[in-house]
């Protein structure tokens, strides 16, 4: 057979071209006409169809009818009509390769390119398809594995943080002439509980003791050791053992077992009224003072031997904090960095803490407004930016001596339910100025609102001569307790014998605060409320931000929205003034009992005994009534106190 004429066959000999086309490992198709008739299909293309008969010469719709509905034919039509190529990446296609009617899954990347007649009109198209199933599945397995690893890591971290939060104090006390802030951060590279701890203990004579310690190691043993040492220190301080006596008790206890030996600790006792400060340390980094003038100084404390090592007693030091000065105690994880000396770490801490406390920050940012809070939050955050982040757990406890003690509060309102909001707002603002944490503040505002509501509703059959219906007085004592009196000058009407929810105000108040006393006499009734108050301590991982909340911004207008089908979301107070609106809106949303209804109470700022009575009545009028109130919500606490928690449902029914 004579050789092929290369002029007549510019692509090569016909047999060679066909062989090359057949052997290309990618899927290659050639279609012609608007029906996409197959004019060429290489071996890989035919194999992708299961080598079914009659492929060439037939429209692809007849060759592979199972592709209908998978947008394949629509894509071919688009290329034909527009005359432009289409590219797809990692598209899943289901094909019946075995002819048994069951579709098999593969992923393909493809290019559809139109072909043209000499006059420029579309003739058909060539299709190049690459099977990428193996790559897609490998990547997805890797992504799933990574997601599972992250889920396991997060679960482990949650366990760590739960353990630490259970062993550390939930907050620091709120005092009339000292403001405290605390941060505990789990090391980025650690998934084990640590041995850092802090505590702040008000003393009977008005002073406050501050402790920061660090047990060697990580894991459950270190955390357990930390918990035992913290208990020993707190008991010694409350027993008035003083700085050296407390350290002596810690030293004796630490010597008993290996897990507690070599612990470092720094203990300081501050008199907020005078600024007098007594300190002692056991092998702990030196305390820092950020002065009111924006400078830093170190307190010269002789760092004795670690606890439990039997090497001598620490030497106490004395200092004085001026008004506005901030004392910073911390663990060595804050200042130790690979490749840096301890002196370099201490210098960085001093610069960072001063900048954090004295930078002019605009209002409306997420930066805490109180100077001691800024120093605590920003110092821990910024010291983690270098050296690859915090390699060890970090604890920081700061206290600022304020210039003047918090003044007592006095408020008066007439016997008018419409003025209860003004009373709550004024009291909430005072608590906010004191630095009381959100949980304690909300409980106190709620209890005070209940006492004031009782006075407005029951004390005055006749208007009082001086027009004053409720007098509120509040003071914060040196032990970190708020004392509130809510007084009226009237004579209370007897409460109705009503099982539907009235008469529960006193029980609710007792559930909100530590102590309630009601004293009734010829001049009226005085309700006294006492509660210890704290500020929340932040315990988390590096980068966590504590929510900055304030009771000063409590919503005082009741709003409602049917945000989900059959779920009514409420925000604001449900009290004597708004309860009728609440009841009407709930009945309206529940169509008088014609349909089930869920109430979302997470945004409710006050849930008074009037609200309790209303819900007891509504549960009979709306048989399908369910309540949603998260663990941190005001309403959840009240519901548990008043026999309504059986209505709780975290996810109210939706239809």
Account of the 3D structure:
By secondary structure, this protein is of the alpha+beta class. The protein has 15 helices and 28 strands. A six-stranded mixed β-sheet has the order 13-12-16-17-7-24, with helices on both faces. Strands 8, 9, 10, 11, 14 and 15 form a six-stranded mixed β-sheet that branches. A hairpin with a 5-residue loop joins strand 8 and strand 9. The longest helix has 35 residues, at 133-167. The protein is flat and about 110 Å long. Residues 497-502 and 545-550 have low confidence and may be disordered.
List the helices and strands and how they pair.
Elements: H1 14-23, E1 27-32, E2 37-41, H2 43-48, H3 60-63, H4 72-82, E3 86-95, E4 104-116, E5 122-131, H5 133-167, E6 171-173, E7 178-186, E8 194-202, E9 208-218, H6 220-238, H7 242-254, E10 264-270, E11 276-282, E12 288-290, E13 296-298, E14 303-304, E15 317-320, E16 326-330, H8 342-358, H9 371-383, E17 394-401, E18 409-413, H10 420-434, H11 438-458, E19 470-476, E20 481-488, H12 505-512, E21 515-521, E22 524-532, E23 534-536, E24 538-541, E25 559-564, E26 567-574, H13 579-589, E27 598-607, H14 609-621, E28 626-628, H15 634-641
Parallel strand pairs: 7-24, 11-14, 26-27, 27-28
Antiparallel strand pairs: 1-2, 1-5, 3-4, 4-5, 6-23, 7-17, 8-9, 9-10, 10-11, 11-15, 12-13, 12-16, 16-17, 18-19, 19-20, 20-22, 21-22, 25-26
Helix pairs in contact: 6-7, 8-9, 10-11, 11-12, 13-14
